[in-house]
Specification:
The chain is mainly α. The protein has one helix at 20-47.
């Protein structure tokens, strides 16, 4: 017979360091900015694909 899974509860807001919300906001902002840049780059590549250089010999 197996034992049921148990998970720790999330820490309460009062047990987190004072600087944690600032860190979380900073990381969240960087992820959002990176995601936006990645989407813009992918869209740019789909709309204007890079053409092979015709001057190069194959």
């Amino acid at each position: 017979m197996s034992t049921p899974a148990s998970f720790e509860t999330a820490p309460t807001a009062t047990s987190m360091p004072d600087w944690y919300p600032d860190l979380l906001a900073s990381v969240t902002g960087k992820i959002r900015a990176g995601r936006s840049k990645a989407i813009a780059a992918a869209n740019q590549e789909m709309l204007f694909p890079k053409q092979p250089d015709s001057r190069r010999e194959t």
